[in-house]
């Protein structure tokens, strides 16, 4: 569903200047969950118990198959813990052209069906990596050709249109390290080439900083395109080493490049302040990448992070 604007005042009354509402949540990622099934990850029941215990009311689905995929069971498990789903997540390779559409849609439709059944209104779309996140082997060039950019932008618009018409969901594209939508230049090129009525962003503050971007500047410049937030920080010391050594994203996470706020960058208080000035309701989902991690590590971090975000007014 589109971000909800404040209701119009009665005729003749001055317009209120109240800021938009920020709905804070967390995600399986913050519990070290990257895959549907992995012995290094906490069981989904523990994730749901602990995310509620940490003080969050909103969650994402995470990798499809980690949480129950039966809609009735999923609703029962979330509702009895006071949790509501904000979005599902899909991975796409739309820059590879029309031949990838059928396989892409099969994956998207599966996730979108479950996302709609939860009552959520967003689908987070993450582009595919250009290198293997474990071996650093190049899968394809980090730079797209002009034709590949056309495939990416037209394919994303088609995806947005189909998802909205069939499932009533809005897509938000997630700039991500080691993908073709990463740096400020790539993000701006993507936004300038896509229809704002169809395609908006999930701004992940950590990934954008990882790739050299300024989240506050992006919000202030392209505010009408910000449809969703992921709150995350990077450790600047670890990041400097990662960039100098050309470390791929997966191993960088294992080195602790994504850190607990407020220990890293960007500062989240000005990001949230800039987002509130947009005067729209936004989800702000905490995502601290830390796969793999000890099972007792996430909950204390989640509690501290929630307290910190409250101190930032969220």
UniProtKB/TrEMBL annotation:
Q: Which Gene3D superfamilies match?
A: Divalent-metal-dependent TIM barrel enzymes
Region listing for Disordered, in residue ranges: 1-30
Q: Which UniProt keywords apply?
A: Lyase
The protein's Enzyme Commission number: 4.2.1.44
**One Pfam family from the record:** AP_endonuc_2
Regions of compositional bias (Pro residues) in chain numbering: 7-17
Recall the GO molecular function terms of this protein's record.
myo-inosose-2 dehydratase activity
Domain Xylose isomerase-like TIM barrel, which positions?
A: 48-311
PANTHER family (alphabetical): HYDROXYPYRUVATE ISOMERASE, INOSOSE DEHYDRATASE
Q: What is this protein called?
A: Inosose dehydratase
């Amino acid at each position: 569903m589109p971000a909800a604007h404040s209701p119009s005042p009665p005729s003749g009354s001055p317009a209120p200047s109240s800021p938009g509402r920020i709905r804070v949540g967390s995600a399986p990622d913050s519990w070290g969950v990257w895959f549907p099934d992995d012995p290094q990850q906490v069981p989904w029941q523990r994730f749901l118990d602990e995310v509620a215990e940490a003080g969050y009311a909103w969650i994402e689905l995470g990798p499809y198959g980690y949480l129950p995929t039966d809609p009735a069971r999923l609703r029962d498990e979330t509702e009895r813990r006071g949790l509501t789903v904000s979005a599902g997540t899909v991975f796409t390779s739309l820059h590879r052209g029309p031949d990838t559409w059928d396989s892409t849609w099969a994956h998207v439709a599966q996730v979108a069906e479950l996302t709609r059944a939860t009552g959520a209104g967003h689908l987070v779309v993450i582009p595919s990596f250009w290198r293997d996140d474990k071996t650093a082997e190049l899968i394809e060039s980090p730079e797209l050709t002009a034709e590949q950019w056309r495939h990416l932008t037209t394919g994303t618009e088609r995806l947005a249109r189909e998802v909205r018409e069939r499932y009533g969901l809005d897509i938000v594209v997630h700039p991500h390290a080691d993908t073709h939508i990463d740096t400020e230049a790539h993000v701006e090129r993507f936004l300038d080439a896509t229809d704002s009525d169809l395609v908006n962003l999930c701004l992940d503050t950590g990934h954008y900083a990882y790739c050299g971007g300024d989240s506050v500047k992006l919000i202030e410049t392209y505010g009408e395109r910000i449809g969703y937030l992921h709150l995350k920080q990077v450790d600047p010391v670890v990041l400097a080493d990662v960039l100098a050594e050309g470390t791929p994203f997966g191993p960088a996470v294992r080195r602790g490049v994504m850190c607990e706020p407020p220990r890293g960058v960007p500062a989240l208080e000005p990001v949230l302040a800039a987002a509130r000035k947009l005067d729209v309701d936004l989800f702000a989902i905490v995502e601290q990448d830390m796969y793999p991690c000890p099972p007792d590590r996430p909950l204390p971090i989640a509690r501290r992070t929630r307290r910190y975000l409250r101190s930032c007014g969220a």
